[in-house]
Design a protein that fits this description.
The complex is a heterodimer.
Chain A lengths: L1 H30 L6 H19 L3 H22 L9 H23 L15 E3 L2 E3 L1 H23 L1 H11 L1 H6 L4 H23 L10 H15 L4 H22 L4 H15 L12
Antiparallel strand pairs in A: 1-2
Helix pairs in contact in A: 1-5, 1-8, 1-9, 1-10, 2-3, 2-4, 2-8, 2-9, 3-8, 5-6, 5-8, 6-8, 9-10, 9-11, 10-11
Chain B lengths: L1 H24 L2 H26 L7 H17 L4 H23 L4 H20 L2 H4 L5 E2 L7 H28 L1 H11 L1 H6 L4 H27 L1 E2 L1 H4 L2 H14 L6 H19 L4 H15 L4 H14 L1
Antiparallel strand pairs in B: 1-2
Helix pairs in contact in B: 2-7, 2-10, 2-12, 2-13, 3-4, 3-5, 3-10, 3-12, 4-10, 7-8, 7-10, 8-10, 12-13
The chains are: A mainly alpha, B mainly alpha.
Chain lengths: 288, 313
């Protein structure tokens, strides 16, 4: 049954996409900033995992911790120094600012790491999982499980912790939150840091699946866009639903139309969805 | 006020005189730079219709540019007369913008920005997957003109300059006219404008089409000029971002801002290219960041501020 295999591929892909998009969606929803840097953050996370594996033998699955810490610090600093100064300005301004920052970060990575594709080749890969006719590589499955776990962790953080509640409060109403004693600028910086952390951790997981190069950043950014609009922005469950939807669409659509059309397919779907339902599958109205 | 009018006319006269004497004194390199400035000014002036006047953050410039370039290039390989391919490139982009505007102009803010950004990606992929007509990812060779190098430099300089003059004339017409006023109303408060009887949809569509037509023609000229196009080159996302940077540099929603911005951006690019070849994208990034943080209203606002202070003193 080829369709069961395609379904399994789609779900594995979808779990990874959810982790790619969750941080992007959080930043968009809370700060009202489209973070063009997100793709480069993911690539940076992949590089951290690559070098830790190459020089220290640290498994990429464990590298999500150092990658997450480094990216959180970077994101926090960028928000504090640059983005907080214009965070309430119109879309054009904040989007242009993150685009400018992305040019710098991406160019720096190109110079430091070159555009050559690198890949983590694990010395001891996990055995593949075979269920009847369905075949799933073990490392891919493990990466997907970790990606979904990370996404769930973010969901719990927003729901259960004090910081998480403050982030949600800022998302709902910046001014009211500030009147209730929330340090909005500090929360902005933490939110952006968490967004970057999710990107870095996702990047570490992806390092065993995708080739690593600064050129790939726009690819990841594009995926994050589509997932975000599919699922509805700012909601973590939305990122999961959107990620799975995109994963299944690419897997099944790629099979039906040929793999070279999968990008066109997902972007065409994005345009269609923006046309009929801009708030996304799970989104609430009023955020468009 | 009258002094202002006189200054504007003098500026215009000096500009026209400079454009006229440049081909006599300038070498081919200077002409190439001038052609690029004219092209940048066309892109910036066009973006100003939708992004500056109506304040809709459009990132569709690359889509219009690439579409115009491909329409024109394909027609040239089929033997259609050169000027017609440019006209049809512009009209094709305008028609595309009319349809696209119908689909995405009801979106606002981030959603409009993303939808317009994605269009270029879709077109790029479409070109990549239709190699029979467009050459796909291998790119497309455009027939060479039967002219010497020096003649070509003159020819493209004058062609691009003419296109710029048309776009500037259109901009003056729109800024002074009813549609410009309607777009300013939409910028300030779209809902209020619709309630007061401004047909917001029609004016937004007009602005979007105007932001496409000259860009499409410029894309066609670019294809003939460089004699080779490929999807990553003409649908480059930087083509969507540079017009916006130029308008921000010069001043949003002003007539001369885009021209000033085009000059400054090209000057900066040349300096950066010469000195930091591998870091030129980062240098552009630093300029953008500095611009957004320290000069969000553009250089023209600075000039006006200085003039105002002098007037008071």
């Amino acid at each position: 049954m080829i369709y069961l295999q395609l379904l399994a591929n789609g779900i594995v892909l979808g779990g990874l996409y959810a982790a790619i998009a969750a941080g992007f969606s959080l930043v968009w929803g809370v700060l009202n900033v489209i973070n063009i840097l997100h793709g480069s953050f993911i690539v940076l996370g992949s590089y951290i995992a690559f070098f830790l594996y190459a020089y220290a033998g640290l498994h990429p699955f464990l590298a999500i911790v150092p990658a997450g810490i480094v990216l959180f610090a970077l994101g926090w600093a960028l928000q504090t120094v640059f983005i907080n100064r214009v965070v309430t300005a119109p879309v054009l301004i904040t989007l242009t600012l993150t685009f400018g920052l992305d040019l710098v970060l991406n160019n720096a990575m190109l110079v430091a790491f070159t555009a050559d594709y690198r890949k983590v080749n694990l010395a001891t890969p996990l055995p593949a999982l075979e269920l009847g006719s369905v075949f799933i590589p073990g490392d891919k499955l493990a990466a997907m499980v970790l990606a979904v776990a990370l996404t769930y962790g973010l969901y719990r953080l927003l729901g259960d912790s004090n910081v998480g509640r403050a982030i949600v409060a800022v998302r709902m109403d910046r001014e009211a939150a500030s009147l209730m004693g929330v340090e909005v600028k500090q929360i902005n910086a933490i939110t952006f840091g968490i967004g970057a952390l999710m990107a870095g951790a996702a990047g570490a997981l992806l390092s065993i699946i995708y080739p690593i190069s600064p050129i790939n950043s726009t690819l990841f950014l594009g995926k994050a866009f589509v997932v975000c609009v599919l699922g509805g922005l700012g909601s973590v469950p939305g990122a999961l639903v959107g990620g799975l939807a995109l994963g299944l669409l690419e897997s099944l659509g790629g099979y039906a139309l040929g793999p070279e059309h999968s990008v066109t397919l997902s972007f065409s779907l994005l345009l269609l969805l923006l046309f009929v339902r801009p708030s996304g599958l799970l989104g609430r109205r009023g955020y468009e | 006020m009258t002094r202002n009018v006189i200054t504007t006319w003098i500026a215009f006269a000096v500009g026209i005189a400079l454009c006229a004497v440049l081909p006599i004194f300038g070498g081919n390199y200077t002409l190439r730079l001038a052609t690029t400035v004219a092209m940048y000014a066309v892109l910036a002036q066009s973006w100003n219709f939708i992004g500056g006047l109506a304040a809709y953050p459009s990132f569709a410039t690359a889509a219009f540019f690439g579409l115009g370039a491909y329409i024109s290039a394909v027609l040239q390989t089929k033997g259609v007369p050169l000027y017609w391919t440019w006209v049809l490139g512009g009209l094709g982009a305008a028609l595309f913008a009319a349809f696209l505007g119908g689909a995405i102009l009801h979106l606002r803010g981030h959603y409009f920005a993303i939808a317009s950004l994605v269009v270029a990606e879709v077109l790029r992929e479409l070109i990549n997957t239709t190699p029979d007509l467009t050459g796909g990812g291998m790119g497309l060779n455009v027939p060479a003109l039967k002219m010497s190098v020096g003649e070509q430099a003159q020819f493209f300089y004058h062609a691009m300059l003419a296109l710029f003059a048309i776009s500037l004339a259109t901009a003056i017409f729109v800024h002074r006219g009813k549609s410009g006023f309607a777009l300013q109303c939409i910028k300030q408060n779209e809902d209020a404008a619709s309630i007061l009887g401004v047909n917001a949809y029609a004016y937004k569509s007009l602005a979007f089409v105007l932001s496409a037509v000259f860009v499409g023609a410029a894309g066609g000229m670019y294809a003939t000029w460089t004699r080779y196009i490929d999807p990553t080159d003409v649908f480059d996302v930087l083509l969507s971002v540079k017009p916006l940077v130029m308008v921000l540099l010069g001043g949003v929603g002003t007539l001369l801002g885009p021209v000033v911005g085009a000059f400054i951006l090209l000057a900066l690019e040349e300096v950066v290219w010469r000195n930091f070849l591998t870091m030129h994208a980062a240098a552009l990034g630093v300029i953008i960041v500095a611009l957004v943080l320290y000069l969000p209203n553009g250089l023209m606002s600075l000039v006006r501020e200085i003039a105002r202070r002098r007037g008071r003193a």
